[in-house]
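Open question from group meeting: does this chain pack into something compact, or does most of it stay loose? Before anyone orders reagents, we agreed to write out a predicted structure and look at it together. Recording both the input and the output here so the notebook holds the full record.
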Amino acid sequence: MNEFLKNKVAVITGSGQGIGRDIALCFAAQGCKVVTNNRKPGSSIHAFEKTSIAFDEDEQKELAKMQGDAQTTAREICEKGGEAAPFFGDVSSFDTAGELIRFARNTFGRVDIVVHNASSNWEGNFLNMEEAMWDVCITSKLKGAFNLMHHALPLMKEQKFGRILLSSSDAFVGLRGLSAYSAANAGVVALAKSVAKELEGTGVTVNAYTPLARTRAWYNQAANYRTRGIPKEVLEANIPPAMKYTAEGMVPFLAYLASEYGGEINGELFKLAADGEIGLWKDAAVVRTIREPSRIWSMEQLKKKVPGELMAEST
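Structure tokens returned:
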């Protein structure tokens, strides 16, 4: 066992399976005491809310390997000689998030690190989305981040050390069929950057990351496409390389950010890919402008200058 995170205490949401589980195992291997979390005991093989996919036998076998919850992850950590305790509860609830942070402090004496990995997703055309699904996607990811930070940051500021790591997604740029998920993840990026500025000089940092790895969502997508006549082999040939691997190889970077070595890194957004790539996202920038010296635009001027100049390289 290494000691990058020796004597630190981490709360990791969504850590029953997938990327969250890999984060919890990695942190524990670095000497961290871990509170694992997901909404309730047991886990579903369905990655998207309100979906029911007829998985074939091979898909079911692969998904069965990925099943787990806060209890199974905590048990695995303890069996390997680490310290962990499970907490079941939905952190999109403000009160439940507070209970989780208090549980961590009461169990292990402090809270040094919060990794908000939990989220819910719905896939489909925006016009088919119900209000309830919008609320689930936004609250699990974005409100959950607010809830956890609200309860954890006072403790971290008092002890002059803290690391908040918020999982976003490259969906923050806006992906087709994932409107609520895209909106939630864009909100997480802005939230991380804003709060990071407020915490400068306190010893507490806030960073976000966009992970890309093979999770149960891949098998859900593959099964969905299979029912449409598109074989898995075609998908395998066209997916990003990182989606061919599970997440255990990329999560050590999060342990680095959570350690003393990450103290000068604040308000950043990183790309984490399971094929070994780590990237730094940069802020959006205005790439082209038009200007009217009189400040008053006429419709005739706009008809000429918008397609001819402002959008010239975009058409």
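Observations to bring back to the group:
The radius of gyration is 21 Å.
The longest helix spans residues 131-159.
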